[in-house]
Amino acid sequence: MNILVCVKQVPDTDEVRIDEENGTLIRDGVPSIINPEDKIALEEAVRLKEEQGGKVTVISMGPPQAKTALLEAYAMGADECILVSDRAFAGSDTWATSYTLAQGIKNAGEFDIIFCGRQAIDGDTAQVGPQIAENLGMPQITYVRGLEVEGEKVKAKRALEDGYSVVETKMPVLLTVIDGLNKPRYPSIKRVVAAFKKEDCIKVWSTDDFEVDMSKLGLDASPTQVYDTFVPTNEKKGEFLEGNEKEKVEKLLEKLKLEQVL
Amino acid sequence: AMEIDKEETGEKQDISGYKGVWVLAEQRGNKLLDVSFELCSEGRKLADELGTSLSVIVLGSDVKEEAKELFAYKADNVYIVEDEELKDYRTETYTAVICDLINEFKPEIVLLGATHNGRDLGPRISARLDTGLTADCTKLEIDKERNILLQTRPAFGGNLMATIICPDHRPQMSTVRPGVMEKAEPDHSKTGEIEEIEVEINAENVNSQITDSGKIINLKSDLSDIDIFTTIKEIVKEAKASVNLEDADIIVSGGRGVGSPENFELIEELATVLGGEVGASRAVVDEGWIEKPHQVGQTGKTVKPKVYFACGISGAIQHKAGMENSNLIIAINTDQDAPIFEICDYGLVGDLKKIVPLLSKAFAELK
Ligand SMILES: Cc1cc2nc3c(=O)[nH]c(=O)nc-3n(C[C@H](O)[C@H](O)[C@H](O)COP(=O)(O)OP(=O)(O)OC[C@H]3O[C@@H](n4cnc5c(N)ncnc54)[C@H](O)[C@@H]3O)c2cc1C
Ligand SMILES: Cc1cc2nc3c(=O)[nH]c(=O)nc-3n(C[C@H](O)[C@H](O)[C@H](O)COP(=O)(O)OP(=O)(O)OC[C@H]3O[C@@H](n4cnc5c(N)ncnc54)[C@H](O)[C@@H]3O)c2cc1C
Asked: Taking every annotated instance into account, which residue ranges of this chain make up the domain Electron transfer flavoprotein alpha/beta-subunit N-terminal (chain A) (predicted)?
């Protein structure tokens, strides 16, 4: 089985810094990790490979430092890692990101299953998975929390707000996964060492290395633009209720009666 | 190094023909979800500001009766598409039919719920139509000068708010989480004629034939790239799904300050007395004191009850993101500097283990 996993490197912190000029995030100096749901995706891919044989390829789009995330992916059991990286990709929204990744995936080969995380913890849109599926013209199952693969058949438990549905399809398919599907393993030390020795376990592709339409890349091609960013504030002015516990409770009841909320 | 050739930037879409605001309503079991009415109310405001019409689209197998209610929320047009194949949400059929409709009628704005299904469908449509999609908007406004939609959304786990625009592509698409927009009071004196759109769907290909006010428009959906479809085998409702935070008028939430799983009974008791639901911070969900469906916040539910009690919750930004739009917030915390007090209406500094039982008693006596 030929499996591909989309992995995004994300900042691991609550600390937000913004490039004021174009409203994009500054990543320098902020510790980076693999997006948590992408680790779940990778774990599922590696388990499938271990059970049924095949190969796991990981792809990421990002700046050169995203190599670290790919080294970790390799250490978790990926066989081949691809970083698509080029200044032309900077400022991509999800539409441009998914176009670029889809082109990268086409260049990497044909895959039976493509895994994504449902959502990245920085951009938070959950849009890239379905958009890659559309770009590649394949079916998708999102919010996967349970998975069975038998021959050509893929059967997934897809989480709904109040339960789940069981969705079946044939490969190739794109799946986006959520927390609870599995517990990702720790990277193997042996493979970390191997990765450092085996420089070529990560391929880096720029726009020269795979077919892309230059007019569909980056900030300029992105249909959505960040117009403004700000740190949320809340202008609500609260009132502390004074007294001992009993008095506080009595005061609250009075207030609520006055406001006719009860 | 790469040089970006400015000559090569793509052709601009002709956006002049796009008019009107659309809401893609969502049904489950042919019942409309509340978020559809919330979006209808919000869509009305946007349409009025633009001086244009509001249309709501409902796909399902038997939705006519339900859809009538949308007129009470001041929809100008309600279009329904009924077919057995559209009974349950499926990516391929819904995407194909809705993209056809958008291409035909050319709305300038399309809103849909950021439900699991909406977040499956929205990006698929935006990729097919080559337009932008803004996720999980918490505020929508019209920029009067340019007549474009300003879409404000949280990113970075709620630490940052961003206003997103989609200036050169149409439609401008946004998803909105349930409970975020205010549902207007229904006005049942408002009625209208539902317009039925007929589609012909077969497994390998979706051919929509649109019948609209007497005109028959033939649309051909190109699904040539997708000849394999997903099948829904079953839909299962789970017991814990009975936690219905989104619809609750009153929520009593407990955080780490509750101290132990046993003490959660105090929270439950107050919720029961008030006829409300029990909410929680992520800290106590992670501790295993209460199950995940109770979690409020960025990675939990977004709620907007009439009254929200935050008991022993510090008010981390990710928690606030899910509850700060509640009508009235009451916070109980031993630490008078806890951030939760910054967004509350009434603050009670003190030990929740004493205050919460007193509240339960007092409210029980009121009845
Ligand atoms: C403040 C802010 C707000 C934004 N709002 C929007 C918006 O509303 N709409 C919009 O279109 N864009 C928006 N963007 C741009 C968007 O964040 C980027 O396009 C980002 O590269 C991808 O989106 P995401 O992080 O939301 O990923 P998601 O769609 O949440 O990611 C889902 C999955 O896709 C895969 N994936 C995503 N990105 C990559 C990658 N670079 N490499 C490999 N795999 C990947 C991973 O498996 C991931 O788990 C915003 C950006 C900022 C800074
Ligand atoms: C990506 C990400 C997503 C997240 N998503 C969410 C989310 O969806 N929802 C969420 O809630 N959190 C979320 N969090 C976690 C969030 O950052 C906080 O860690 C969490 O909300 C803290 O929970 P808490 O307020 O219960 O606990 P604490 O922060 O530990 O606060 C406990 C409070 O109880 C008070 N207290 C102690 N004893 C008493 C007493 N006897 N009586 C009264 N008060 C008392 C203390 O003064 C304190 O203010 C997320 C974090 C990240 C990084």
From this structure: 22-214
